[in-house]
């Protein structure tokens, strides 16, 4: 489910909630104490922000993982946050909140990427080091072609995500043998050309 109303956007306006959402997505399910340690924040503060995300339906309790009645576990719900930027052109308040959310998400994405590349390579099997990739480039596309590219890339992601989903449906263990949590980051956007009278940039 995608939702882009202002109230839902504001649920992610605090940068710590973005961090908690990413940490919870990586863990699949986690206790409040685990998440507090992950984001290096006090348990009480983390608990408050988790409840805010829960009130807007983005996370849900996962009592099946708790060892006793005092332990509180959370997991992501099926609800996802998403919006079309063009729909916010006439809504300045929503556009401002959306910009804040995107900024926090980009910061967290970069932090996770940076932490991976800063790790000691010996912590990973060489096969994982060879399989991991980072690439970027510039190509010429129309907006329709960029939309189709996005749809095709997401279909590839969905196909590989289905491998883990199928395993969890037929196995008592959450992760396939040899599998790790793998993060992907996809961005596709137009880049303005810089025109100079001396011919510094050309079509």
Structural features, described:
This protein is mainly α and 203 residues long. It has 7 helices and 5 strands. The protein has helices at residues 6-11, 15-27, 32-39, 43-55, 92-118, 126-131, 143-170, and strands spanning 2-3, 29-31, 59-61, 73-76, 80-81. The strands form 2 sheets. It has a 3-stranded antiparallel sheet. A two-stranded parallel sheet has the order 1-5. Helix 3 (32-39) packs across helix 4. It is globular, with a radius of gyration of 20 Å. The model has no long low-confidence stretch (mean pLDDT 89).
Give keywords.
203 residues; mainly alpha; 3-stranded antiparallel β-sheet; two-stranded parallel ribbon; 5 strands; 50% helix
Brief description of this entry?
The protein contains 7 helices and 5 strands, in the order βααβααβββααα. It is mainly alpha-helical and 203 residues long. Helix 2 packs across helix 3, helix 2 (15-27) packs across helix 5 (92-118) and helix 3 packs across helix 4.
Q: What's the mean pLDDT score?
A: 89
Main sheet makeup: 3 strands, antiparallel
Number of contiguous helices? 7
Q: Are there runs of 5+ residues with pLDDT below 50, and where?
A: none
**Helix percentage range:** 40-55%
H-E order: EHHEHHEEEHHH
Class inferred from helices and paired strands:
mainly alpha
Strand line-up across the major sheet: 2-4-3
